[in-house]
Amino acid sequence: MSYIKDPKGIEVRSFEMITEELGDRADRFSEQEKPIVKRLIHTTADFEYADIVEFQNDAVNSAMEALRSGCKIYCDTNMIVTGLNKIGLGKFGASAYCLVNDEDVAREAKERGVTRSMVAIERAVADKDTKIFLIGNAPTALFMLLEKMDKEGENKPKLIAGVPVGFVGCPESKAELSKYDVPFIRTNGRKGGSTVAVAVLHGILYQMYERDRY
């Protein structure tokens, strides 16, 4: 039985196959955006991401600037935090966190009759060092982030990855991003998820490695 055993070899061949199958569908993306699109496909094995992912307001450069400044990254699930490359983020002094499982967040959410994601976002927005928001699960988190940003526009994020997955409020929350002058990457429609949010950030982060290598 013959197959590729080397992890790096598997990844390299996977991206070669993705590039081949994508063909000219990737032509509408910039050179900075293409690696992110390919990483989304690599993560999901779903080529529809080439059609539903959207980049606005110089999102990639804005995110790179924030990461180089050593910003904090708010994630709406602990799964995203776990999936991110901590060593890679550490090279730039950046870090990721999530608040949805904090006891006081849960208590306040129950008292107010709202989701924990909404309360957690309110607290994250209040932290001036939090410049990137990865929303892969809760549309309510994205709605609340935009609502708070509207009221407190001076702390505009450097990147919103609006990629929640689901049905109720999911496509609608992503559509709301169009109303705001903020750098964002989104997956239009129902598709997304925590792994997709991780892929977005890694697609940016790994490009930064390559630049610094030379």
UniProtKB/TrEMBL annotation:
Residues of the Cobalamin biosynthesis precorrin-8X methylmutase CobH/CbiC domain: 10-206
GO molecular function, one term: precorrin-8X methylmutase activity
Keywords on record: Cobalamin biosynthesis, Isomerase
GO terms classed as biological process: cobalamin biosynthetic process
Pathway linked to the protein: Cofactor biosynthesis; adenosylcobalamin biosynthesis
Enzyme class: isomerase
Cited Pfam families: CbiC
InterPro entries reported in the protein's UniProt record: Cbl_synth_CobH/CbiC, CobH/CbiC_sf
EC number(s) recorded for this UniProt protein: 5.4.1.2
Family: Belongs to the CobH/CbiC family.
Protein name: Precorrin-8X methylmutase
